[in-house]
Amino acid sequence: MTPSPPPLRVGMIGYAFMGVAHSHAWRTAPRFFDLPLAPQLTVLAGRDPAALSAAADRLGWADTETDWHRLLQRTDVDLVDICTPGDTHAEIAIAALEAGKHVLCEKPLANSVAEAEAMVAAADRAAASGVRAMVGFTYRRVPAVGLARKLVADGRLGTIRHVRAQYLQDWIADPATPMSWRLQKDKAGSGALGDIGAHIVDLTQYITGQSLTGVSALMETFVRKRPLPASTGTLGGVAGEGMGEVTVDDAAVFLGRFTEGALATFEATRFALGRKNAIRIEVNGSAGSLAFDFEDMNVLDFYDGAEPAETAGFRRIVVTEPEHPYVGAWWPAGHGLGYEHGFTHQVVDLVGALAAGEQPRPSFADGLQVQRVLDAVERSAADRSTWTEIPTDDHPGEN
Questions:
Q1: Per-residue pLDDT tens for 2-16?
Q2: For residue 5, which of 344, 348, 322 has the smallest C-alpha distance?
Q3: Which residue from 106, 115, 263, 271 has the fewest beta carbons nearer than 10 Å?
Q4: Is the separation of the CB atoms in 284 and 156 below 8 Å?
């Protein structure tokens, strides 16, 4: 009889949108993948006792804590999963690492470069004792994105010349949509830039294997006051009495340059009517091109520049074969995956790295590099779109 793998006892802080997605992933991963550690949903933390208890029952957590400090003190927690607004990431992550807990922290890593640098320093100190930290850029785990990265790494695109990236949503395009913490700079750090722009910064660096070195940016807030919420939901809520001030950007557009000279354009907005979750990446190289759109997430378009002109054209690759990243653990060929699978694959990769004593990716250093890009975008936009270099140091991100 095969022995059961050792447990990985998880404590999660936060149980809203991301908490639900992470809970599903922790429950699902060991049922489809042979993991070297067995995740256990040990304890869930939140501030509202009644809502917390209901969430724990619904999501499958064995116990609850109404103070995250107590969660860190528990000896039955090996890993802390942080699914809270960005203003709490640094405090919780640093305390968890100092308590000897592995950490998975939602993106963006922090609300400022200084916070992210402190988190990297804490992760470095903890790594000396075998304690690991990872930031949750889950779109890396979409099989089509994994295939895109492989095609670039294998040289199928040649020298990268252009990168185009958009993240388009419309969930706050209606001025009557009420306020939420995502529209408050002190809670979220930034608006569309950090919430969704961070994803396309990470994705393009991941796919190309290169880093952004500078940007020129514009940012805009289209609706500056919104109704205060009477109640909150997954992303929005129900409007109540009074108005609140929006203190973040609604949209950000910027130019960029990658390490090896490729030119890039980025657009992140929550005001693109009709676009629900359109993450569009196109990469053009000297030998080929690829294109991806998350609203058709099981497909990657690939153009092979070596094809004769008579038959050349973008090839539609349905990324659902067992040979594709992660797919072999799921359904028969041709049966597509969905949004939630990226979170499951994140658990698979994290658990595998922890069991092997390796640094899981993306690391806090990777998250810091993205934070520096976001900071450069904000500084450029505030200074009439001035070209703004992205600083580097002896602890670069690893893509």
A1: 789 999 999 999 999
A2: 348
A3: 263
A4: no
Give the length of the chain.
399
Residue 321 phi, psi dihedral angles, 5° rounding:
-90, 150
- Which tokens in the block code for residue 161? 């010349």
> Angle at which helices 113-127 and 89-98 pack, to 10 degrees?
10
Residues 84, 15 contacting (CB under 8 angstroms): no
Average pLDDT over residues 70-74: 98
Output the CA torsion sign for 328, 331, 334, 337. negative
Tokens of 14: 């936060």
Tokens at residue 191, please?
Answer: 């608006």
| Cα(245)–Cα(247) distance, integer angstroms | 6
Classify burial at 28, counting beta carbons within 10 Å of its beta carbon; exposed 0-12, middle 13-18, buried 19 or more: middle
Residue 38: both structure tokens together: 């067995």
Q: Report whether pLDDT(232) > 80.
A: no
The distance from CA 43 to its chain's CA centroid, rounded to whole angstroms, is 23
Name the token pair of 363: 């690391």
**What are the percentages of helix, strand and coil residues in the chain, rounded to 5?**
35, 25, 35
CA–CA distance, 210 with 96 (Å, rounded to integer): 31
Virtual torsion, Cα 365, 371, 372, 373, nearest 10 deg? 120
Q: What is the C-alpha separation between 358 and 348, in angstroms, rounded?
A: 14
Rg (CA), the chain: 21
Tokens representing residue 338 in the block: 């969905």
Mapping DSSP to helix (H, G, I), strand (E, B) and coil, where does residue 260 land?
Answer: coil
Tell me the helices (H) and strands (E) count for the chain, helix number first: 11, 17
State how far the Cα of 165 lies from the Cα of 200, in Å rounded to an integer: 6
Stated pTM of the model: 0.95
